[in-house]
Q: What sequence folds into this?
């Protein structure tokens, strides 16, 4: 059987399409449309005959769910393994097994890192900067988030394609959980800074009753249970509408 | 070990469990009871990476996990148990583990399954297993992550025409959407 | 009118970034609001509304079946409302306009969440049809489904933004006439909403960990010592 490689341009194609993994996100197959979209050009290149391409299509239109950034490791690895399948050295089933084996831990570790740590941290630093520099805050948010985002996205596709199934060892060494813990601690430090800066800014610079009212309220809100945190939009809506009317009526200054 | 959550999730240990429930319940141990996964030791370190370092991870076959959970009543550590399907929850229960409540968090779409919630699809075997759990006084709820609404699964099944007396003789109803 | 279209275009692009494409965080409230501020010629208002919304939503993570509140479209409409209030009367108090903008944004976000559910259901149908065709041997290209999904996400954001701005414009007149007494600027309201936001951040970063608590305390002390320098 002739040796087929998808080529450098196709790897770049995988990277470009990885940005659209969730374009047709849905509750039934989750990220399957995006995964199929990323992989299909690889399949067309590697499986000229109809029957093999149909098997390929079935493998990559199945339910897929991972962290949208870290999924690029799975995309790269799957493409490499498809070359092996086309060369007859590996079975199609192996690709499916590897996809699932990688997707789930990458989802858990990636969501912890990107959604639960990096994004709030970027937001926090953006808020701190915006307090002094307005629009500059948004740029800080974008810069901090995307340094990590683009690094892992590009690296995922490239290393996944280079290593194939051997990517498992590299993924295990990523230590996103450790990095999350470190950045989370950094976030706690900057929150302390924001606490003081915001408190002083809103109480005319004095550590007086207004400052302590602010600090007390923030701590109480912070300690309320998950069910409250999940409904923060509804709570804040009621609070802001009430506050607007009370201000207009002259009750709140 | 003290079960603080028994969860049915076909994705096993993923973000909703590793981030949501582990964050809310702060367990000491997470037990993933799955025969297929227990065979494949190579993937264990890969799964380890999704949990904070202070939480212990045990991956074992269903019966072996049941053994771990049954023994050591003196062991007061808090434990989250994750299984893939309702049938495995039944096996855990039948192996003598005291399961009082089961949380269904992920039974995803497959051909021929009926939709109850965006993340709960069931077929005939699932309904039978769930009904079995319910008949043994296990409280059945569906909830994906802490803080989101929790649904009474038995009621959802009845509303879909799948629960209640005589359901075993009927074909599962058609999807409602 | 040209300004409305520009702002809604930004709303659509930021909505697209939420889930469907790129995810470079244009959809974060601080970014969407800053963009809207620049487009409406009120960058300071944009940043101020963005700061409050960013804090309030910093605990929301896209894990679980329920979609998050529609932050980008909300932020853009909220900034529009705040700057419309400031334009309607020269003496309209700035903090009150910002809080009103935040209130409007929160409302839009909740409506937006319901429309996201609809969008996802449409995506499901599109891909289900693709899969059915695949089973009968007609292998298409998922690119079509993807394009439709992305177009849907953009149009939803754009349309919702137009509707929200339309409604908020109608609201601007009456809100403007509701003149508060001179001493009432909305300063207390800002403290209230700010405290809610900082509370959410506290919950996100500090709760349940001694290391984090120590780091938080370190930040407090650091900022107190340097408060004169930081101004």
A:
């Amino acid at each position: 059987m002739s040796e087929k490689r998808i080529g450098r341009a196709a790897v770049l194609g995988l990277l470009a399409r990885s940005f659209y993994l969730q374009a047709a996100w849905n509750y039934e197959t989750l990220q399957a449309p995006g995964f199929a979209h990323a992989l299909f050009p690889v399949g067309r290149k590697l499986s000229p005959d109809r029957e093999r391409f149909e098997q390929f299509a079935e493998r990559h239109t199945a339910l897929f769910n991972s962290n949208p950034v870290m999924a690029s490791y799975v995309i790269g690895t799957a493409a490499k393994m498809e070359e092996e399948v086309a060369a007859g050295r590996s079975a199609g089933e192996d690709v499916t097994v590897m996809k699932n084996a990688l997707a789930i831990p990458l989802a858990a570790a990636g969501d912890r890192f990107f959604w639960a740590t990096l994004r709030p941290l970027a937001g926090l630093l953006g808020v701190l900067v915006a307090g002094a520099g307005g629009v500059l805050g948004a740029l800080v948010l974008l810069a901090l988030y995307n340094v990590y985002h683009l690094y892992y996205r590009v690296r995922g596709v490239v290393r996944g394609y280079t290593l194939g199934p051997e990517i498992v060892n590299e993924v295990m060494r990523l230590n996103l959980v450790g990095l999350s813990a470190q950045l989370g601690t950094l976030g706690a430090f900057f929150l302390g800074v924001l606490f003081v800066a915001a408190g002083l800014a809103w109480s005319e610079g004095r550590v007086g009753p207004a400052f302590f009212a602010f600090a007390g309220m923030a701590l109480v809100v912070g300690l309320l249970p998950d069910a409250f945190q999940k409904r923060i939009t509804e709570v804040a809506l009621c609070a802001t509408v009430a506050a607007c009317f009370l201000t207009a009526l002259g009750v709140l200054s | 070990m003290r079960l603080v959550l028994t969860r049915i999730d076909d994705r096993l240990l993923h973000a909703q469990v590793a981030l949501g429930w582990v964050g809310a319940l702060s367990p000491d141990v997470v037990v993933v009871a799955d025969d297929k996964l227990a065979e494949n030791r190579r993937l264990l370190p890969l799964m380890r990476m999704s949990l904070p370092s202070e939480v212990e991870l045990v991956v074992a076959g269903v019966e072996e996990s049941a053994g771990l959970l049954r023994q050591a009543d003196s062991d007061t550590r808090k434990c989250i148990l994750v299984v893939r399907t309702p049938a495995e929850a039944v096996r855990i229960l039948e192996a003598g583990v005291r399961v009082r409540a089961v949380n269904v968090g992920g039974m995803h779409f497959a051909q021929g399954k009926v939709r109850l919630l965006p993340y709960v699809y069931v077929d005939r075997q699932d309904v039978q297993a769930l009904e079995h759990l319910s008949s043994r006084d296990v409280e059945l709820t569906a909830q994906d992550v802490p803080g989101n609404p929790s649904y009474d699964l038995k009621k959802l099944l009845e509303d879909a025409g799948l629960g209640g007396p005589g359901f075993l003789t009927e074909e599962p109803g058609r999807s409602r959407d | 009118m040209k300004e409305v279209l520009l702002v809604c275009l930004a709303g659509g692009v930021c909505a697209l970034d939420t889930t469907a494409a790129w995810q470079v965080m244009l959809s974060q409230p601080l970014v969407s609001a800053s963009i809207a501020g620049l487009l409406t010629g009120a960058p300071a208002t944009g940043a101020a509304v963005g700061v409050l919304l960013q804090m309030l939503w910093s605990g929301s993570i896209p894990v679980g079946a329920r979609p998050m509140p529609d932050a980008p479209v909300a932020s853009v409409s909220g900034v529009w409302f705040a700057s419309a209030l400031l334009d309607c009367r020269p003496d309209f108090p700035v903090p009150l306009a910002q809080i009103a903008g935040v209130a409007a944004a929160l409302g839009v976000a909740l409506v937006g969440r319901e429309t996201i559910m609809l969008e996802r259901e449409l995506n499901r149908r599109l891909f289900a049809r693709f899969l059915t065709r695949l089973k009968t041997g007609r292998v298409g290209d998922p690119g079509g489904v993807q394009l439709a999904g992305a177009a849907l996400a953009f149009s939803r954001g754009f349309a919702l933004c137009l509707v929200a701005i339309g409604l908020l414009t109608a609201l601007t007149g009456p809100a403007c006439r509701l003149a508060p007494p001179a001493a009432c600027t909305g300063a207390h309201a800002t403290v209230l909403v700010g405290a809610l936001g900082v509370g959410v951040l506290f919950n996100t970063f500090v709760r349940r960990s001694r290391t984090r608590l120590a780091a938080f305390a370190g930040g407090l002390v650091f900022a107190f010592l340097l408060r004169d320098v930081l101004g």
